[in-house]
Amino acid sequence: MNQWNWESTWPAPAKLNLFLHVVGRRADGYHLLQTVFRFIDRADQLRFSPREDSEIVLATPIPGIAPETDLTVRAARLLQESTGCRQGATIHLQKNLPMGGGLGGGSSDAATVLLALNHLWQTGLSRTSLQKIGLTLGADVPVFIHGQNTFAEGIGETFSNVELPDETYLVLHPAVNVPTAAIFGASDLKRDTTIISSGDWRHGQGHNDMEPIACIRFPAVAEYLYWLRQHATHALMTGSGACVFAGFSKQAAAEAVFKQLPTGMNGWLANGLKKHSLVDL
Question: Which residues make up the binding site for ATP (predicted)?
């Protein structure tokens, strides 16, 4: 019997970009990327309740975001439209991941909605079909549906799975919300990093092309990154910011740095996951 049902709490884990290169730009304006996505055990949590009507209701709206524009609601309605499903659901979302942090929280939430409701409504779409729906919601949504740590290319939809070592991550969250569009739209963003083969990539290789832009426009990101690099030279920003992180092969080493965190600086420890916990759904 499958463990996942209407009584379940469904995880929406965060991701880290172990590197993030901008290698080009399409004619339609979308940026061509290369990155490695690593899932971690810090996650939002979702619950679903069946309804007697076909409405999609977000029981826990996020302040400042209209429910009809929330990615969780949009994901559920797209699944209804794509399958002709007449069932409804009330969505309960517990946000543990910061918005504008580069951790993929909203995309992960949307992916979990698609995976969960496809299962609960028994709409029967394949994972590949769900990824296509997810891509219309955002470039990061498909990787969460894919569910494996992966080397991603294109606009983030082409995957080559990678094996990653066990690591504990110290993630720091500057108290700023970095809009992805502001970073991608910057005129001084480097967009011609040399393409590398997924088979040639090695753990620890690469940088984040968006990091210099975020550090200039959001000084708190630069401050946090500078502090972290005093303790871990390989520290990076994830996504388009604002969070920065460093991986440690030994948990005790991560804990030792975490204990030195200055008062007022926000952060947490998280372990890398081998795969998304819904990958076998």
Answer: 98-108
